Amino acid sequence: MAVPVEGETIQIHSYKHNGRIHRVWQETMVLKGTKNIVIGANERTLVTESDGRTWLTREPSICYFHAEHWFNIICMLRSDGVYYYCNISSPFVFDNHALKYIDYDLDVKVFPDMSYTLLDEDEYEQHRKEMAYPEVIDKILKRNVDKLISWIHQRRGPFAPDFITAWTSRYQLLREIHAQE
Fold first, then answer.
1. Active site: which residues (predicted)?
2. What is the rounded end-to-end Cα distance, in angstroms, of the chain?
3. Assuming Cys at both sites, which of 36, 42, 100, 124 could form a disulfide with 28, CB separation 3.0 to 4.6 Å?
4. What is the mean pLDDT of the chain?
5. Which CATH number goes with the domain that contains 139?
6. How confident is the model at residue 36 (pLDDT cuts 50, 70, 90)?
7. Is residue 59 part of a domain?
8. At residue 116, does pLDDT exceed 70?
9. Known binder of ligand: residue 103?
10. Is 87 one of the annotated binding-site residues?
């Protein structure tokens, strides 16, 4: 499997279980790329929805993807703190300069004080029936909601106190290097 290279700009493609494209983020800079982890950053990047609508992200974000966990985490850097939007999803694959995953509707929104809310349970149930998610997928996804909540409580991964500082510093450095080229 190809691995994204630090400093490279890639797209992020979100699909649904039925194989249809859900959403595309046009430009994300790779801060770390290995076969298991991709950490990226973007700011005011163009997002295209499946129906063709487009919008720009509002704030800088650090994105965390893992090839073995069934979730990804978007850390949104706002003036009043870091908000986390966690997608319950398939592990990522990297193909043709794009990071790709299947979005399984369930989301966890985490606030700067580390309180959180589980979102879109009704959408998940609807899509689980419409797209006939296999029972094994349903179990994996529910287990990963629990794992993600455990990470929040333990301040693991992107929820660790120094994660944002380290990766925003790296993003600024890479942006400065690219601006000089």
1. 23
2. 29
3. 42
4. 96
5. 2.40.380.10
6. very high
7. yes
8. yes
9. yes
10. yes
